[in-house]
Amino acid sequence: MSFSTLVNDLTYRDRPSSTNTISTANHTDTRSQISRARSYASTAATSVSVAGEVSSQLHGGYSHPLARAWQAERQLTKSMLIYPLFITDNPDEMESIASLPGQKRMGLNKVVDFLQPLVAKGLKSVILFGVPLAPAAKDALGTAADDPQGPVISAIRLLRRAYPRMFIVADVCLCEYTTHGHCGILHEDGSLNNTLSVDRISDVAMAYAEAGAHCVAPSDMNDGRIRAIKLKLIEAGIAHRVVLMSYSAKFSGCLYGPFRDAAGSCPSFGDRKCYQLPPGGRGLARRAIQRDISEGADIIMVKPATQYLDIISDAKEIGKDMPVAAYHVSGEYAMIHAAAKAGVFDLKAMAFEATEGILRAGASIVVSYFTPDFLDWLET
Annotated region Disordered: where (predicted)? Predict the structure, then answer.
């Protein structure tokens, strides 16, 4: 019943029954009618609360934009973001990546100037991926991965000098540096040689750490590589100053295409299903997370992100006392751009919605190609 209906209803009830009482009726003015209507409505509302139904009234808690923001368990901040950078061995290169809108591959002579406006806007961290382009740069062992003059080690040293306060993460893998494009060293039959791969991966991680990386992040998914890296960091006396972030739950799938275009890391044969996790393997992911925590990981990462929110939640449950990262991968980013371009939704709104879902699931660190956009959007 509307408020105006209440007024009319009360007016009708109180109408005098005799013409002799017309003068008395004049005492019933509009304000008294409204007052009785308000009293009636208030009594009705009180009866609802007495009946225990007041808990159903939620709108007031998020009617204002700031109040809506307060409903989030964690809100996106600039310090949560890590920006992926593709560094090539061509020092003057600055090339757009067709399948990754707005992203570029760049050489050492370009990276400092490229980052300057982003740092001014609040960029705190980058993750480096090496992209060797020289014809002889790749071999079966990924020798160029820890070349002291290679793109990653050179970029670490350069960025440490140019931006001393920036947190530098180095992705650790062999796929960009091997002729076969797989994430380790292979047996003669083409299967992964886990023992040799772990030894090689841990050596590469050490080279990046000794060059000045604040964090090494092995993404190869070889069994036991976290323990091997941690032991070598301890032996070298630098474990106390190097963060070990494990791609603990990295799933195989079709969301990595744009990244492989950017990094030149597509396998020359076969696929990575035997070492990356199957999309339905929630139990395997939980076991991998538990294993990497026990082997000394400081941060757990889940990759991809938005299709694996349950795994992010699991990671936060299993590693409740440690940070959880999520990689919002190239395919997820490219899909949002494509759909926004087609008019399906607004780009900014969807970028926030996807990222807030990642945070809600339990992540507090997000590797995102949207980082430059968020640096602007979070200012408004």
Answer: 14-35
